[in-house]
Design brief:
Layout: H1 2-22, H2 27-40, H3 45-62, H4 86-109, H5 114-134, H6 138-158, H7 166-177, H8 181-189, H9 196-209, H10 214-227, H11 231-244, H12 249-261, H13 265-280, H14 289-302, H15 306-317, H16 324-340, H17 344-357, H18 362-372
């Protein structure tokens, strides 16, 4: 009995420390803590969900798929499938299947088990993320997303003050509301509706509640506000995330991105440079500096500081990164700015380097066009 009574405390302790590592992008350390939480309470689906989240987002970060600039436009729908090690894919499947089985077992005994409903919704949401971003299997991703929303709406029906459930429901409401018209009409046929205002309100509530999904709610809310060009509001949210998680490279990067997109060019340049210096000083675990270099290039270009922009673009373009799409965009941009400076030979070199990374992309097609005719400006 003594051992059993100690288990929840051990589970909560390992879960808390796991999330501290998780939001510092120390995914392997987070996973180790979540595995200990599973050992402390092996029948709790939450532990498997947390481990699944750590493994999945470790891989997404490794491939730069957490770059928020990808999700402020629709181009990410056409981005290439992420190639994962088969062993990692199997680990993701096993963790998801185990979490689902534990939730289903509890729901079979009690269909109104709120914690089990919530946990199943989380599992389905993570499966949707995996199928959409890794496998590019959009129908499977949609099925799981609908299941996740349904579970969390059921939670809110049973317990309206279970605010963590508003994160998934809020994200889904917003995304469906901003779908292209044809896609939205198809979604309405199968009973899927969205409400942009409700989505943003739900995320704001979940973000302020301080629950387990609070950080994720604020990340989503800031992203959607950025998409809506409500930059000051998004910036305020991201500043709180930076303060709470000072080792999180992505939050610091988003802070600089928002300054750039919000028209604060000189401040953005300083922020990017501070971020890059902090990376050199070891402030961030495993920083993906190419993302900051590309952002710096964009900010410098926006301020007509072309020679410095080329250097930043080249640093991003020649980085040893899995993200060939970012590298290609950076090399293409370096070529464009070189053309603006009438440095034709350098521009041609950049365009050829971009094409060499992948000749079958839109960026490669654009680079080939500029090989024939110099870039003249946007």
């Amino acid at each position: 009995m003594a051992a059993d009574s100690a288990r929840p405390n051990a589970f909560d302790g390992y879960t808390k420390s796991g999330f501290e590592h998780y939001y510092s992008l120390e995914y392997d350390k987070a996973l180790a803590d979540f595995q200990k939480a599973i050992e402390a309470s092996p029948d709790d689906p939450r532990g498997y969900n947390h481990a699944l989240e750590a493994v999945l987002f470790r891989e997404l970060y490794r491939h730069d798929a957490l770059d928020t600039s990808l999700y402020t436009q629709d181009g990410f729908l056409n981005s290439k499938q992420i190639t994962l090690d088969p062993a990692v894919k199997q680990q993701i499947k096993q963790l998801g299947d185990k979490a689902m089985a534990l939730s289903e077992r509890r729901l079979k005994a009690d269909p109104q088990d709120i914690q089990a409903l919530y946990a199943r919704g989380v599992t389905r949401g993570l499966k949707s993320t995996y199928m959409g971003l890794v496998e590019k299997a959009w129908f499977s991703a949609l099925r799981n997303a609908l299941g996740s929303r349904s579970d969390h709406e059921a939670v809110l029906t049973l317990k309206p003050d279970f605010v963590d459930a508003k994160t998934v429901v809020g994200i889904h409401n917003y995304i469906v509301a901003v779908l292209p018209l044809k896609t939205k009409m198809l979604a309405s046929i199968i009973g899927v509706t969205g409400d942009k205002k409700k989505g943003l309100e739900y995320l704001a509530e979940a973000g302020k509640a301080g629950g387990e999904s609070s950080v994720d709610a604020r990340v989503a809310l800031a992203l959607f506000l950025r998409r809506e060009q409500r930059y000051p509001e998004a910036l305020n949210i991201v500043e709180t995330l930076v303060q709470e998680h000072p080792q999180n490279f992505l939050f610091a990067l988003e802070h600089a991105n928002l300054m750039k997109d919000g028209g604060k060019g000189p401040e953005a340049i300083r922020t990017y440079r501070t971020l890059l210096n902090d990376c050199k000083d070891g402030k961030y675990p495993d920083p993906h500096v190419e993302l900051a270099q590309f952002g710096l290039g964009e900010a410098l270009r926006g301020q007509n500081q072309y020679p410095e922009a080329i250097l930043a673009y080249e640093a991003a373009g020649h980085a040893s990164s899995h993200n060939h799409e970012l590298r290609q965009r950076a090399l293409l941009a370096a070529g464009e700015v070189s053309d603006l400076l009438a440095k034709r030979e350098e521009a041609v070199k950049e365009y050829r380097a971009a094409i060499a990374l992948d000749s079958a992309t839109n960026e490669a097609e654009t680079a080939r066009k500029y090989l024939d005719k110099p870039y003249k400006g946007r």
